[in-house]
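All the exercises in this workshop are built on plain-text protein records. There is nothing in a record beyond a sequence line and a structure line. A learned vocabulary of local backbone shapes supplies the integers on the structure line. The question running through the whole workshop is how a given chain folds. Here is such a record, shown just as it appears in the course material:

***
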Amino acid sequence: MTRNSDAVLLFDLGGVLIENQMFAELKRLTGTDQTEAELIDVWLRNPVAKQFELGECSVDEFSRSIVSEFDLDLSPQQFLDQFKHWPKGFYAGVELMLAQLREHHTVACLSNSNEAHWTEAVTAHFDFAYSSHLIKCIKPERNAFDHVLNDIGVAATAVHFFDDAAANVEAARSCDLNAYHTVGYDAVRAELAALGFLA
């Protein structure tokens, strides 16, 4: 059940609440002229990367595949050691903001994540925390949003969803969620204020 309000605030993590250097680091490692957007596209087309975020392959399989796919001058273990630290943690102010929001609203997160990045240090700040590798569903596929709605027991129209990927925002809207394209903490805080969730 939601608390003190019918609204459920549902957040993506990387690029919204958490500073994630993933594609900047991948660009640095590869020395490529590709843009970060192009690298994201390559990443999303890598079947093993998707399997990893769905919890369907081991970290060893994943690291070997990425080293090969991107022709990295690293061993799979060296890559994995770096990969674990690509999320830099919450942007300054996020933890306080989430605590304030939880006083009046149900606060949840839905992330395409994996066993290397999913930690209690992150999930402790939410009433409900969903990662693709645990729920076996991945954004922008509809079943990821359906899983959240069914698990919380809330209507789509009561959910306000914040994500930095336009494709995920469009998918959420097609499922009748209220969805907002926000990149970084300043943007999500401004959107929350405009919606009346923050003073």
